[in-house]
Protein: 6-carboxy-5,6,7,8-tetrahydropterin synthase
Organism: Microbulbifer variabilis
Amino acid sequence: MHLFVDNLTNVDFSYLDHQRGLVGETWLANAALDGALDHQGMVCDFGIVKKTLRHWLDDQLDHRLLVPILAPGLALAHQDGNISLKWQLASGEQISVSGPEQAFALVESDSINAESVARWSVQQLANSFPASVEQLKLSFEDEQIQDAFYHYSHGLKKHQGNCQRIAHGHRSRIQIFVNEKRDKSLEQKWSQRWKDIYLGTREDLREENKENGHSLVFAYRAQQGDFTLQLPASACEILDCDTTVEQLAQYIATTLAEQYPGSEVKVRAYEGLGKGAIASAKL
């Protein structure tokens, strides 16, 4: 017997890629279970399936940095409940990250993609279901977006939850209106501007190193611990505000209003799937 749960939940995270660097991502999760019928005539109660999988995905993948620990060019160290790593990019540049262990997901693979993360997740969940369940299958997929979107990573040190982790992210839609008329060309420009970008808060910028490749270092102390991130300056945009979706929407709206004086600009910015903020500006 085959049991399935489509659109079980979604996960927002970032991952390391040799070509793209630090990538913010959002995936939809689907699940399927094979097995015999139990005394209730079920493979497994849907309530157990949803609760178990959602809890694990929220706890182990969502708002973490996914690291493919079998990848070449990775140097990783554990010390006193913290992880520090260095990641070599194809360009010869480097990304360095440190923080509490709970901010990372160490995936046994040489690259991060939907298939490798699904295989690893199933291995981690091997003993989480009743004996009637013979096989668990997980799959991840992108939200189908017809218009502009971008991938960004960030960290919110003031957040009480997992958003405080310095390197997590989202794949997000954007809609821009000038004088109530949607402007898809501006949406495309911002999707390119924030393609695989790290959005850093200026007060978290600790160092700017222009030797051996221009890089930026961000660091802060949050409720969960101390975090640092160093990455190429070309992969960053520095904002004079925190990078909540509310403030990102306002930042885009204000930036565009300066370019279109006298016009009203409205921005509908998403943070991952089905949520976001709306901001307006007129100068």
Remarks:
- The chain has one domain: 2-171+203-237.
- Residues 46-60 form the longest helix (15 residues).
- The domain at 2-171+203-237 is CATH 3.30.479.10 (Tetrahydropterin Synthase; Chain A).
